[in-house]
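Backbone-to-sequence.
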């Protein structure tokens, strides 16, 4: 029995595909990732095609995209000349790789554009004041978010896990912040 024939595996793969579309990722790419994540062995592209019923070109494109995110890698299986693929199964590593790639693709260009616009608008007195202020605030906000991400991503995994588990309780470590101020 192929992996996808199990109803819960199929449900996970279909749901992961749907969630992918909500995150801006192609459904096929997300389904390929889900199949590889659940697989206990490396899969060749033709096995992925067969199990998911996708076109070979979609699988090839999807595998390239997943490799670009660093969450799928090509491996060699002894005695088989085909390329095989495995997914990252460490959830923290997967999260960090996806986040780093999305930041590189989406946030960094936005910060660069906002910096340029903010700088130009400082000199442009013909632009409405509220536009200058809002773009400058947006630049400061997203830059701060980017800097925070860079600092946090350098923390050891156990520290990240602890921070996540602390949740809003981490605010108690900020001097002068009372319990009622934690929102």
């Amino acid at each position: 029995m192929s992996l996808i024939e199990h109803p819960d595996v199929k449900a996970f793969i279909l749901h992961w595909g749907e969630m992918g579309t909500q995150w801006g990722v192609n459904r096929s790419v997300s389904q390929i990732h889900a199949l590889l994540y659940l697989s206990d062995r490396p899969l060749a592209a033709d096995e992925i095609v067969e199990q998911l019923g996708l076109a070979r070109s979609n699988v090839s494109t999807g595998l390239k995209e997943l490799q670009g995110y660093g969450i799928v890698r090509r491996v060699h299986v002894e005695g088989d000349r085909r390329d095989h693929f495995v997914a990252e199964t460490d959830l923290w590593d997967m999260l960090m790789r996806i986040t780093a790639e999305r930041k590189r693709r989406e946030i960094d260009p936005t910060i660069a554009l906002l910096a340029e616009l903010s700088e130009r608008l400082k000199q442009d007195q013909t632009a409405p004041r509220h536009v200058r202020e809002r773009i400058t605030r947006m630049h400061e906000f997203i830059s701060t978010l980017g800097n925070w991400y860079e600092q946090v991503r350098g923390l050891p995994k156990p520290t990240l896990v602890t921070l996540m588990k602390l949740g809003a309780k981490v605010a108690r470590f900020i001097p002068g912040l009372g319990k009622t101020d934690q929102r």
